[in-house]
Amino acid sequence: MNGFLDSFGGLALALLGSGLAVGLSCVGSAKGTGIAGEAGTGLLCEDPSKSGKVMVLQLLPGTQGLYGMVVWFFALIQLGFMSGAESVNITVQTGLQYFSACMPMALGGLLSAIAQGRVAAGSINILAKKPDDWSKGLILCGIVEFYAILSLLASMLMLLQL
After folding, report:
1. Using CB atoms within 10 A of its CB, is residue 73 exposed (0-12), middle (13-18) or buried (19+)?
2. Contact predicate 98/162, CB 8 Å
3. For residue 56, pLDDT beyond 90
4. Inter-CA distances, 11 with 33, 80, 89, Å
5. pLDDT digits over 5-29, tens only?
6. Residue 89 confidence (pLDDT) above 90
7. Separation CA 88–CA 81 (nearest Å)
8. Are 134 and 123 in contact (CB under 8 A)?
9. Please, where are the H alpha helices in 47-133?
10. Sign, Cα dihedral of 136, 141, 144, 149
11. The dihedral of CA 44, 57, 119, 21: what is its sign?
């Protein structure tokens, strides 16, 4: 009976970690794209010709949700869910390792997407006032994206060690 609980607890921890990686990253992306979208609607009311550039800026905070999905999918592959195995048995210790490996993406994805949404909203203000300088705002968004990529890299490297 103890082996069953150990196995179930380990799997629960691993699935919780991978679920948080995708879930929190998607929550951050939804919030970030929402912030940028709110800023974009004000500009588009005044100048609809800037819709392409506004959409690019709004799209950027959405990438963290994709990164979280990559970590989630990779964790499921590592756990053996994609191999057609009938059951997955891992210890609580291994489950905790999976959980820990997914946390950089979960927290990094959540926080960087929200921060990037705020930067994208400011970049939309640049686009409104100085349309020729909108690429400067794009670079500012890219700086925040770098930390989401670091979170993805940290999670992936840790998952590869399991």
Report:
1. middle
2. yes
3. yes
4. 33, 11, 7
5. 665 889 999 999 999 999 999 999 9
6. no
7. 7
8. yes
9. 51-59, 63-79, 92-129
10. negative
11. positive
pLDDT in tens, 107-161: 999 999 999 999 999 999 999 999 999 999 999 999 999 999 999 999 999 999 9
Which residue type, as a one-letter code, is found at position 116? Answer: Q
SS3 (DSSP) at 25: helix
Give the chain's length. Answer: 162
Q: How far is Cα 150 from Cα 43, in angstroms, rounded to an integer?
A: 32
CA dihedral sign, ordered 136, 141, 146, 149: negative
d(CA 90, CA 67): 25
Tell me if the pTM is above 0.85: yes
Tokens 């799209």, residue located? 59
